[in-house]
Amino acid sequence: MKRKLWALLMAVVTVGSFTACGSSTSAPATVAKTEAAAPEAAKPENVKTQTWRMAFNQTEAHPQYRVMQEFSDSFKERTGGKYEIKLFPNETLGNQRETLEQVQAGTIEMSIVNNTHPGSVSDYFKTFDIPFVFNDIDHAIKFMLESPVMEEVKKDTEQYGFNIATYLPAGVRSMYTVKAPIKSAADMKSLKIRTMESDTYVKMMTYLGGNATPMAMGELYTAIQSGVVDGAENNEITYVNSKHYEVAPYWSETKHLIVPDWLIINHDTFESLTDEEKAIFNEEAAIAVEKVAKLWDEDVEKLMATLADKKVTITTGVDTESFRQAVLPLHEELTNANEKIKKVYDAVQAVK
Ligand code: GCU
User: Fold this and answer.
1) C-alpha 254: how far from its chain's center?
2) pLDDT digits over 122-145, tens only?
3) N or C: which end of the chain has fewer CB within 10 A?
4) How far is it, in rounded angstroms, from Cα 111 to Cα 279?
5) How many angstroms from the chain centroid is the CA of residue 62?
C-alpha cells in the first residue's frame, strides 16, 4: 500500500502537552533528525540512569514492539543515557486495562493500549471504536496526523494522569472463526465472537446478529481452543503472530474496524522531562509512527504468505457492504448520545 506518510508526518504529531514545553503545535514538525532538531541533552555526571517500564501485550515480533525498542535506544542515546526504557512484552506486566491503571498510578511509566482504554475515561476516543468510521487505513492515518481536533482529544487524558505520546497504526480488523468462513453479515448469526472491552463492540456484534464476548488478548487463544468463543476479530499481524490461526483457521476479510493504538506515558513522568528532553521524546514518537506504518504493510504481506502451507482458509471478496449497512445505526446512536463523540466524528468526516 502506497501512502504519503512522510508528507503527513512533516505536518504533525505532537503530544497535547508538548505545547507546555514551548513547541508550537501548528508549526510543521520534521521527523528527521535534522539541524532543526533540539540539541542532544547531555547527562550530568552525577545523575543516575532512570529506568522506565513500558508494557506491551503482544510478542517481540510485533512491529510496534520492534519500533519501540528502537525508540528506547534512540531516546537513551539522545539523552546521554539519562533514560532507559525497558519493554515488557506478552502481557508480563498485566493486560492492557491493568497497564493503563498502572500508568495512571505511576507504578509503571509507559504502555501501548488499544483505543478502548483511553475511551474508558475520555468520550472523545469513543468515536474511533465505531465500525467503518474511517474509509480505509490511509484515511485514519491522515486524520490522526492532520486533524486539528486531535490536540484537544489527546489533551483530554491528562486530567486522568496519563498523556498520549502518540497514535500508533494497528491495521484493519477482520473476522476469524473456528468452523466456517464469513462471506456476508448474515453468516455472523448467533456466533460468539471475542471483542475488545468496549460497549460499542458489544453493540456492533448485536447489530451483526452475533454475540460479543469482551476479554483481554492474553486469554483469547485458550478461549477459542476451549470453545468459549466461536472466533474473534483482529488484524493480520495479531492473527498470525499470536498463532490464533491454529485454533480459528477461517480468516475472512470483513475489514469492519480500523482502531488506533496509543502509546501512553504517565503525566508526571512526562512533565519531569526538561523542555529539551520533551522535544527529543516528541521527535522520536513521530518517527515511530512512520516506522510502524511501514513495517506493518511489509509484515502483513510476509505473515499472510506463511499461512499458505497451513490449514487456513482465507476468504477475500467478503460482502463488506452488508457489514457496513448492519452497523450503520451505531453511527447515529453514538453521535446523538454524546457531543464529544460527535465533534470528533464530524472532524473525521471532514478529512478525506
Ligand atoms: C490489536 C491491537 C492491540 C489490541 C488487540 C486486541 O492487536 O493492536 O492493541 O490489544 O488488537 O484485540 O486486544
Assistant:
1) 19
2) 999 999 999 999 999 999 999 999
3) C
4) 20
5) 12
pLDDT at 117 over 70: yes
Model confidence, pTM: 0.90
For the stretch 309-337, pLDDT in tens is: 999 999 999 999 999 999 999 999 999 99
Q: Which domains are present in the chain?
A: 5-18+46-170+259-301 (3.40.190.170), 173-257+311-341 (3.40.190.170)
Q: Which residues line ligand 1 (CB under 6 A)?
A: 57, 96, 114, 170, 196, 217, 234-235, 238, 261
CA distance 301 to 152: 35
Which ligand 1 atom is nearest residue 238's CA? 7
CB-side exposure of 20: number of CA atoms within 13 Å? 14
User: And the C-alpha cell for 138?
Assistant: 490511509
pLDDT beyond 60 at 205: yes
